[in-house]
Amino acid sequence: DTHWQSEMEASFEFVDTSDQIDATREIKQDLQASHPMDRLLCGDVGFGKTEVAIRAAFKVVQDSHQVAILVPTTILAQQHYETFRERLATYPVKIGVLSRFRSQAEQKETIMELKDGSVDIVIGTHRLLSQDIGFRRLGLLIIDEEHRFGVRHKELLKQMKTNVDVLALTATPIPRTMHMALVGARDTSKINTPPVDRLPIQTEI
């Protein structure tokens, strides 16, 4: 880890849970290994999966590679964009977003910057899987709630995944994903410990 990495992680406004520390360590070991990472990070909503993903993305960017974060909804893309921007505000990291909240001109500019390498992290919906998207040096693909993407999207994902580290985040793994994790075809990190003072989720129908 660089000095910036340690500094950024120390600036986290909450206390890391033991599971967050373990998951971060496992992901960093994967990133430093000679073979591409394929890791599933499981944890309930509000357990700190996003913070672990931010740390992984920042580490990859410092190694002069780009990061793509694929999310199922426009709202989630915007939420992640704001979170990543806030956490990395003091560092020279350029973050772009591709979703229907962005005008055609803004999307075109972001796509050009992805290809020339001036955008370090891009957060987007399935728009990221379009044919006009290209990267200068993609190093990490983060997929949030992978089960929300259809078969066609998954085929496009397979093409993107070649020789790229992959980190999937989920609160509710689908049976196939869970089976792959259990048989060892996919590495798994679990965040089972809730943060201090976290309130339980209330679901209303």
Largest sheet: 7 strands, parallel
Instruction: Give the beta-strand count.
Output: 7
Give the integer mean of the pLDDT values: 88
Radius of gyration: 16 Å
SSE series:
HHEHEHEHEEHEHE
Shape label:
globular
Quaternary form: single chain
| Number of helical regions | 7
- Describe the strand arrangement of the main beta sheet, using strand numbers: 3-4-2-5-6-1-7
In the predicted model, the low-confidence regions spanning at least 5 consecutive residues are: none
**End-to-end Cα distance:** 45 Å
Proportion of residues in β-strands: 15-25%
Helix percent reads: 40-55%
Structural class: alpha/beta
What's this entry about, in short?
This protein is α/β, with parallel strands linked by helices. The protein has helices spanning 3-10, 18-32, 49-62, 74-87, 104-116, 151-161, 175-182; strands spanning 38-43, 66-70, 95-98, 121-124, 138-144, 165-170, 187-191. Helix 6 links the parallel strand 5 (138-144) and strand 6.
Notes on the structure:
It contains seven helices and seven strands. Helix 2 packs parallel to helix 3. The chain has 205 residues and is α/β, with parallel strands linked by helices. It has helices at residues 3-10, 18-32, 49-62, 74-87, 104-116, 151-161, 175-182, and strands spanning 38-43, 66-70, 95-98, 121-124, 138-144, 165-170, 187-191. The longest helix is centred in the N-terminal third of the chain and has 15 residues, at 18-32.
